[in-house]
Structure formats: C-alpha cells, structure tokens
C-alpha cells in the first residue's frame, strides 16, 4: 500500500516563523517531478511538535490541493497522549489523506502493553490505513517486533516505519508479519540494504534534498539490482550522514535553502538555524550527490 520512496517533508518557514506557502508549493512540485511516491506531512521532520493543530490542518489542506492526487499523502498524527492522538486522528480522517504515520508515544516511556493499547485505540478512531513508527533514538522507547506482529492483526494497521537501522530487526519483522505488511526503513544510511533484503521502501529525510537519487536507489533495490542500488546510494551517503549533523530538520532546511528551494532556512524555536561551522560539510555533501556544481 505504502511502498517505494517516501519523504518526511520539511515545513518551510519565513523568518518570523510563519509557514512559507510559496516555498511549500515549490517543495511539493520538486518531489512530484523527481519520482517520490509519497509525502509524510506533519511528522518529526515537519516540526509538528511546534505547530498548533489548527495550523497543521491548514498545511495539510494546502499540500493536498497542490499534490492533486499525484503522490500518496500520509499525515503524522502522533502524540504521547493516547486521548490526544485519537482526537487528532478523528479530525484528520475528515481530510482526503491516504493514511497516517503514528509514532510511538515519546517521553513517558510506555510498556509494550501500553503501546499495544495506544496503537489499537488510534487505529479504531479511523477507517484509513495506519503506519506504525518506531524511532527509539527520538522517543526513548522501542516497539518490539512481537508487539508489531500483534498490531499487524488489526485490519487497518498496514505497516511500519522502522528507524532502528537494524537488519536483525528487519528479519524479525519479516518472520513475524505477513508479506503484505509494509516494511519501510526510517534510517537513510541503511535504507538501501534494508530494501535489498526485502524491505518495501523508505520514509526518508534525505529525499527532501535528493528525491531523484533516492527514488532511483530504492527502485534499483526493489528490483534486486544490488550493484546499481549501492552505487547510487554511495553518492548519497554524505547526505545521509550530514543531514543529521545537527538535530533534524535543521540541516535539511539549510540544504534546501542553499539549493534555492526555500526562501529561508528558518525553523521554530527551540530549533535554530544551522551553525555556520557546518555549512561547508552540507555543501560538500550536496556536491557529492551532484546537486551542486
């Protein structure tokens, strides 16, 4: 259902912190023209944590209009409060989105039983497909493969964005979940190997900056062409690394500004602009990916 090269889209902003809709339109068109299969709107990379829900709805509505059905649109609906996640899900279901990306509850570190109940409650609040999102490095909690397998029995829980970067975790999920359950990498640096080993795609930060390269890499990996997939990925490895040189999405925003795709690299506090000491590293990564001459 959700396979291929998908992007966790940044939310461009003006210097005063308001959403830059002109640049947002440009970013959606950039993804559309370069082979991206789906957009995740209002995830971590989209700075959902500092964007009020009413404004999130405005951004989603705008992207849906610009996209015009070209790519799948998946909305972030996560919260560390189950009640809040359920309420957000009910409201977002009214929009013509294709599904949800639901992150594990962060900060309060629920048990596996707590996460099982959380995701079941979210799924019950909508008739749209739900992707689980496991990113222990940001949330402080790990959704185990056995718990994922139990959640996969819920009719509208259709896959997972697995961001541990572990091939062992991928193998566990493949063993425990049905073949139609979508297994998407959430770790750019290991995404090529993840797909070569039978994963179905990626939800990527790098794709913000290099959509054509990521699309080509994922396509080659899905076709089993290891040599081409790894050769393409080699040009992107510096981006995979350096787009996390500071907290995501700070480096991606600077890179998109440097490429002329956004008017500013502004983010909302507590995120700030990329430190000047890192500018050269990002420029060199863009050059290695053949995005700057």
User: What is the N-to-C order of secondary-structure elements (H for helix, E for strand)?
Assistant: EHEHEHEHEHHEHEHEHHHHH
Structural domain tally? 1
Structural class: alpha/beta
How many helices? The count is 13
**Biggest sheet character:** 8 strands, parallel, barrel
Q: Which stretches of 5+ consecutive residues score pLDDT under 50?
A: none
User: What is the CATH superfamily?
Assistant: Aldolase class I
Query: Shape from CA axes?
Result: globular
N/C terminus separation: 37 Å
Strand arrangement, major sheet: 1-2-3-4-5-6-7-8
Q: What is the C-level CATH assignment? A: Alpha Beta
CATH topology: TIM Barrel
Q: In CATH terms, what is the architecture?
A: Alpha-Beta Barrel
Please report which band the strand proportion falls in: under 5%, 5-15%, 15-25%, 25-35%, 35-45% or over 45%.
5-15%
Average per-residue pLDDT, rounded, comes to 97
Which helices and strands, and how do they pair?
Elements lengths: L3 E5 L12 H13 L4 E4 L11 H15 L4 E5 L5 H11 L6 E5 L8 H13 L5 E5 L1 H4 L5 H7 L5 E6 L4 H10 L5 E4 L5 H6 L4 E4 L6 H12 L3 H9 L2 H6 L7 H9 L20 H10 L5
Parallel strand pairs: 1-2, 1-8, 2-3, 3-4, 4-5, 5-6, 6-7, 7-8
Helix pairs in contact: 1-2, 3-4, 4-6, 6-7, 9-10, 12-13
Name its key features:
single chain; 293 residues; alpha/beta; TIM Barrel; 8-stranded parallel beta barrel; 13 helices; globular
